[in-house]
């Protein structure tokens, strides 16, 4: 069952009928179950509104289990934000196909943009901003959650291509491409509302933007 503001709980992954110590697969499924539930609770109720009692009840686990695994509410929040980012990024990585570097980056940017304007990810972004603004989780948030995870993916694609003289510029170029192809259109869709959240409009915007960038970076030409 999905967690909602009405307080519904999620089903726990089924236990091995033979009993005994949970397998690694079962442990991983339980962790994903807890983090998915916690993420939904934080998104629905906000950081201040969510509490460990309600999260434990929604996940159908004990509060002791949450503290044993994550140490604190903030620890659970960071883990849930990292889980949410990784989950969405995995769906992007899994679909990347062969082709020109331009086509691959455009595909990644479009997929990330589609995800980034979804209501759940808008809620996830609020949590990420809260975590990063308070510098929780050490260096983890800088690498594992938020836009940096997507920028790292674009940088990997650039480094796989024949960058030649541009190789040293890969980190800067990756961040620039992310802002041009994801941050700006997302802002226009959600904040300025002058770009339609429709496949044709997004595709046209990304193609035109990439054409302009390719004038300075021929590697990204058609």
From TrEMBL:
Does the record bear DNA-binding in its keywords? yes
Region (Disordered) residue ranges read 1-23
The family database entries (InterPro entries) matched by this protein are listed as: Homeodomain-like_sf (IPR009057), HTH-type_TetR-like_transc_reg (IPR050109), HTH_TetR (IPR001647)
Q: Name one Pfam family in it.
A: TetR_N
- Keywords, in A-Z order: DNA-binding
Annotation: DNA-binding region: 51-70
UniProt superkingdom: Bacteria
Q: Where is the HTH tetR-type domain?
A: 28-88
Looking up SUPFAM superfamilies in the UniProt record yields: Homeodomain-like
Q: One GO MF term, please?
A: DNA-binding transcription factor activity
- Composition bias of kind Basic and acidic residues appears in 13-23
PANTHER family, per database record? HTH-TYPE TRANSCRIPTIONAL DUAL REGULATOR CECR (PTHR30055:SF146), HTH-TYPE TRANSCRIPTIONAL REGULATOR RUTR (PTHR30055)
Q: What is this protein called?
A: HTH tetR-type domain-containing protein
Q: Which organism is it from?
A: Sphingobium indicum F2
């Amino acid at each position: 069952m999905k967690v909602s503001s009405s307080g519904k709980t999620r089903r726990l992954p089924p236990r091995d009928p033979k009993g005994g110590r949970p397998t690694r697969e079962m442990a991983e499924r339980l962790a994903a179950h807890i983090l998915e539930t916690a993420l939904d609770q934080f998104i629905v109720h906000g950081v201040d509104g969510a509490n460990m009692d309600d999260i434990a009840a929604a996940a159908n686990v004990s509060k002791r289990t949450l503290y044993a695994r994550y140490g604190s509410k903030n620890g659970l929040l960071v883990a849930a934000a990292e889980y949410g980012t990784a989950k969405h990024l995995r769906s992007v990585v899994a679909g990347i196909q062969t082709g020109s570097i331009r086509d691959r980056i455009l595909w990644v940017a479009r997929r990330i943009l589609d995800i980034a304007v979804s209501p759940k990810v808008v809620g996830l972004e609020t949590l990420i901003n809260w975590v990063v603004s308070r510098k929780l989780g050490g260096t983890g948030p800088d690498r594992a959650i938020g836009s940096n995870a997507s920028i790292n993916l674009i940088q990997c694609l650039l480094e796989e291509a024949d960058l030649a003289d541009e190789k040293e510029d890969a980190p800067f170029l990756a961040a620039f491409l992310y802002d041009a192809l994801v941050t700006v259109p997302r802002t226009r869709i959600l904040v300025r509302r002058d770009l339609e959240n429709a496949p044709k409009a997004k595709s046209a915007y990304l193609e035109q933007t990439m054409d302009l960038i390719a004038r300075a970076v021929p590697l990204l030409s058609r």
